Amino acid sequence: MLETINLTKVYRDGTIALDNLTFSANSRVVTLLGRNGAGKTTLTRILSTQLLPTSGIARVQGYDVVKDAKKVRKIIASIPQEAKSIGIASPMEHLVMYLTARGLSFKEATEISRSALKEVGLWEVKDKPSDELSGGMKRKIFVAMALASNAELVLLDEPTTGLDPYSRLEVWSVLKSIKSKILLTTHYMEEAEELSDEVILLHKGKLIAKGSIKELLAKFDNKVRVEGIGDYKIGRLRISYIDRNEASDYVGKYVIKPITLEDLFIIYGGETLEE
Ligand SMILES: Nc1ncnc2c1ncn2[C@@H]1O[C@H](COP(=O)(O)OP(=O)(O)OP(=O)(O)O)[C@@H](O)[C@H]1O
């Protein structure tokens, strides 16, 4: 269970990263979506007790992230965006170090590490120094840690950035299978669609939409996306959203597509020509 009440974070230079954010979410996989700078990492860092809020309340499984920070740390595993592997240490060494630091015996840690490394597809390279692994493989070490942690809540900030499509599928299948609840941050719409039970859309530190993807898409059930014309501008592409029954007027002239999660992002994020 994640909960915030009027959560606000103002950085020292005056940047308002979170602006009176109030929400609660209790699904197994909750995904934070938003443009660059929306406040996703700031929220993840506050929930994982790495950053203090300026005001407001945030709770993880009922525990206040400021007053009960120690309890929160016991029940979460946090894999930040900037997590870097130690060059001379192998994937196996990373996992064993991590699990023994979480309080497991060396024997238990070794056993759990073995199965986690097999599951994320790192078994073949388990003893190689991580310096000699590809960027994607290094990223997978952290996914294996999340898997092995057995934490109540795992916070994963962009876990598949830099992975090839096959590795991304491998990571998805791991994330689907683990028992822990997950707070995921991603820029990949496909990933959000594949994994999320609930999505939280942030824009400039504010909540603009929350719900299952099905619920959010249902609001635009009668719309279609038209590419090549309109007020929304993504790079050089102009987009508009029209009623489904008007679509026949556009057939043959423009590309018409069903509404996806990416469109919600565009509609709610509101990047228009005027802005
Ligand atoms: N340490 C900091 N000091 C000042 N401003 C910061 C700091 N960290 C983040 N910000 C600002 O706070 C806002 C939210 O940043 P945050 O990193 O939380 O966004 P994000 O949604 O995670 O972005 P991205 O998708 O690019 O990772 C941005 O305007 C950012 O520039």
TrEMBL record:
Q: Sorted alphabetically, which InterPro entries does this protein's record hold? A: AAA+_ATPase, ABC_transporter-like_ATP-bd, ABC_transporter-like_CS
Q: Where is the ABC transporter domain?
A: 2-229
Identify the keywords attached in UniProt to this record, alphabetized: ATP-binding, Nucleotide-binding
Is the keyword Transmembrane in the record? no
Q: Which Pfam families match?
A: ABC_tran
Signal peptide residues are none
Q: Which GO terms describe its molecular function?
A: ATP binding; ATP hydrolysis activity
Q: Which PANTHER family match?
A: LINEARMYCIN RESISTANCE ATP-BINDING PROTEIN LNRL
Q: What is this protein called?
A: Putative ABC transporter, ATP-binding protein
Q: Organism, per UniProt?
A: Saccharolobus shibatae
